[in-house]
Amino acid sequence: MMPAMSEACDRLVAIMDRLRDPGGCPWDREQTLESLTGYLLEEAYEVVEAVRSGEPDHLREELGDLLLQIVFMARIASERSWFGMDDVCDGIAEKMVRRHPHVFGDRSVDGAREVERNWEEIKEQERDHTSSALDGIPRSLPALLKAFRMTEKAAALGFDWERPADVLDKLHEEVDELEAEVTSDDPAAVDRVRDELGDVLFVMANLARHLRVEPETALQRTNEKFLRRFRSMERAAAARGRPLRDHDLEELDRLWDRAKEEE
Question: How much is the average pLDDT of 220-231?
Answer without folding.
Answer: 94
